[in-house]
Design goal:
With 261 residues, the chain is an alpha/beta fold. The chain has a single domain, classed as Zn-dependent exopeptidases (Aminopeptidase). 30% of the residues lie in helices and 15% in strands. It has five helices and nine strands, in the order ββαβββαββαβαβα. The protein has a seven-stranded mixed beta sheet with strand order 1-3-2-6-9-7-8, sandwiched between helices. Strands 4-5 form a two-stranded antiparallel ribbon.
């Protein structure tokens, strides 16, 4: 698999590449593009409007926060169905054969060379862009804070149980940023929030571990329910909220030093 620059977008979108604020937003599932040569992985066009292909609204929220705060954002352009940068390469869900009960024809019977080609085209450029952005921010003398922006469905088709939270905050061993963000969101009237819901940062969140935990920098993943950010107005509301609460959180001395575990 190759990306053809004549037809296909680059694998990574970088917002405010020269920003100096020690905050980096990332969007592991921000995009839903497929290289033209991959023929939509054998799926109908309607599949790429669903959550199986991308995190609906996440890119808009991440861009909105970056623009409001003057921060950098690194966003994955290609669909998670092609290769999921928020999974280790050895994880079967990194290139899923099914997603929420739907078979992915273009992901059946892949060879190791197929995996290597997809990783070279989409996976490693995204991870490399995150590391370069963090390195640039670190050179300014501050410890950067990493916020991964995701969204989740009100219920999974394959499970059916309703998810009552408006937002969840995920982390694993380093909870400095996650606890502060959860407290700030929980203080907003009417918001229903939870830690490590609807997914656990212990078992999920590969990018958090690879770029946050491993580097000792404060990090968290926010999961926003998709029906709340499926419109430009919803994206703007959440971008406004996050942009408003983040400065006070980042001023906490506990977040201004690396913390290795």
């Amino acid at each position: 698999m190759e990306i053809d620059p004549a037809f296909d977008p680059p694998p990574v979108e970088i917002v405010n590449p020269d920003a100096t604020l020690p905050l980096l937003l990332i969007g592991d599932h921000a995009g839903r593009a497929v290289p033209r040569a991959m023929d939509n992985l054998g799926l109908g066009a309607d599949a790429f409007g669903r959550h199986i292909a991308w995190d609906i609204g996440a890119a808009g929220v991440a861009r909105g926060v970056a623009e409001r705060r003057g921060a950098s954002a690194v966003l994955a352009t290609y669909t998670r169905l092609l290769i999921d940068p928020n999974r280790p390469l050895g994880d079967p869900d990194c290139i899923p054969t099914r997603s929420d009960g739907i078979p992915i024809p273009g992901n059946q019977s892949l060879t190791p060379r197929d995996l290597e080609a997809r990783a070279a085209a989409c996976y490693w450029p995204y991870h490399g862009a995150i590391d370069l952005a963090l390195a640039r921010l670190s050179r300014n003398g501050a410890t950067p804070v990493l916020l991964s922006v995701h969204s989740f469905t009100p219920a999974l088709m394959s499970a059916g149980s309703a998810r009552p939270w408006h937002a969840g905050v995920m982390a694993s061993r380093d909870r400095r940023f996650a606890d502060a963000l959860l407290a700030a969101l929980g203080a907003q009237p009417g918001l229903v929030t939870a830690f490590n819901e609807p997914y656990s940062g212990i078992t999920h969140g590969y990018c958090l571990k690879a770029h946050g935990l491993a580097q000792g920098i404060p990090h968290a993943q926010i999961e926003i329910r998709q029906d709340l950010i499926c419109t430009p107005a919803g994206e703007a509301w959440w971008a406004d909220l996050l942009a408003r609460v983040l400065p006070a959180i980042m001023a906490d001395p506990a977040l201004q030093r690396p913390e290795h575990y």
